[in-house]
Amino acid sequence: MRAFILLISAILICYSDLSACTIFNVSRDGRCLIGNNEDWRYTDSCVKFIPAGKNKYGRVYFGFGKKCRYVFGGINDQGLFFDIASLTKRNDIAFDLRKQTVDNEIYLKMLETCSSIDEAIGLLTRYNVNGLRRHHIMIVDRSGNSAILEWGRDSLSVVMKTKDYQVMTNFNNTNPGLAGWYPCNRYNLVEDKLGTLSSITVEDIRTILESVKNNDMRFPTVYSNIYDLENKQIYLFHNHNFEELFLIDIEDELEKGEHLYSIPSLFSHLRLESPVNKENVLIDSVELNWQGNADSYHLYVSTLPDFKTCKPVVISDKNFVKAENESNLGWLILILFPVLLMAVKKRKAYFLVLIVLFYSECKTHPSIIKIKENKSYSYVLTNLETNKVYYWKIKAVKDNFPTTTSIVKQFSTLLTQ
After folding, report:
1. Are residues 320 and 263 in the same domain?
2. Number of domains in the chain
3. Which candidate, 49, 108, 146, 201, has a CA 20 to 30 Å from the CA of 289?
4. What span, in angstroms and rounded, lies between the C-alpha atoms of 304 and 269?
């Protein structure tokens, strides 16, 4: 019997990770940031932009399916955000028969017409929202106010943010026994990290999201977002890769008119491999290595973390040299030795100059830029200053698509005692 109970417990623990969305927001130092991991069984994710119209705000939707048919979350140009997270379906909910029953389309209307938490709550409470039988929703406005709406014991429950942060995963916050999977390690991990951080940055949110991504391939983390409400920006990540981001300027995208991006098509599987972050190279040169499948790359290296005045090195497949074609000194000497003898005998200095230039080009060019197997690239930086911290990042460029950018990493040439 004990073995049977342990087996059932293990099954329940595994099942609890299936629908594993993680949503949280934090308001600190006058700034509000939102983190979201969207975990789902499908991979056809998309982001859709709809500009403002008559009596409608501009909005950005994230979801799945053709033309982004199934919307899971989004934000409008007033800074009102929402996202949903799955719960176990409830059959005990008795709706108010005096109210109209609607489904998830009400969330789209909310972004079209509401600009604050109060307006959003006022709209949703006028209806029976059928979707709340199987999920709950977090709403955040630009001021940093937030609330979780879910079905409580007998009625709709509004859980307001009481700290400077609020977290929602996949259990009922009003009463964990009503629906969902409790306890939740992801919820506890986010709570612990947000509670111990003295200040908050985009990098902090990125690190937290990566730590709670869902690795179960039945419901993996398909995409992740960081919303910066103050700057009206969205940092978009895809498919567990938190080293490559697509930065969305909400106002700029809405000015382009109604359009849609397939999220997978935006990304180039970009990863910075070495040197590892904050490594001390202890030499005056370093080989930067990365992976990706873009058409070209813009490499930025600077002693300033904001890369001001930094001009990138533009690198494409045309100026990459395959690693296996690097010059071999032995073959070079074998080929050029007869020419060298002739030059010495005939005292033709220009032959020597030609040989030196040829050797220099063959020796240095392939070691500066090269492409290896599996879309792995390297670039050698030389003449580095000692006792300096260098920052580097890469932009990946794909034809007909906006660029993605790697996260910023750093290395140093600090001398140790």
Report:
1. no
2. 2
3. 201
4. 26
C-alpha to C-alpha distance for 344 and 20, rounded to whole angstroms: 75
Looking at the chain, the whole-number percentage of residues with pLDDT higher than 90 is 71
Residue 240 pLDDT: 93
Identify the H or E element spanning 49: strand 45-50
- Strands of 77-177, DSSP E: 81-86, 101-102, 128-129, 135-140, 146-151, 156-160, 165-168
The CATH number of the domain holding residue 320 is 2.60.40.10
List the structure tokens of 261. Answer: 């991006």
Domain co-membership, 263 together with 300 = no
Domain harbouring 41, CATH code: 3.60.60.10
pLDDT at 332: 39
- Give me the amino acid identity at 321: V
**Looking at residue 203, what is its pLDDT?**
96
Range 20-53 burial, b when 16+ CB lie within 10 A, else e: bbbbbbbbbeebbbbbbbbbbeeebbbbbbbbee
For 353-376, how does the pLDDT look when each residue is reduced to its tens digit (9 = 90+)? 333 332 322 222 333 455 554 578
Sequence-distant (≥ 6) Cβ neighbours of residue 417 within 8 angstroms: none
Pairing assessment for the beta strands 321-322 and 369-371 based on DSSP bridges: parallel
- The pLDDT value given to residue 318: 58
Asked if residue 285 and residue 197 are part of one domain, the reply reads no
Q: Which residues of the chain have pLDDT under 70?
A: 1-19, 317-374, 400, 416-417
Residue 67 belongs to domain spanning: 17-267
Return the beta strands (E) in 112-197 as ranges.
128-129, 135-140, 146-151, 156-160, 165-168
- 236 and 328 share a domain? no
> Please, what is the average pLDDT of the chain?
84
Residue at a domain's end among 215, 239, 267: 267
- Helices and strands per DSSP (H, E), number in the chain: 9, 27
249 plus 274 within the same structural domain? no
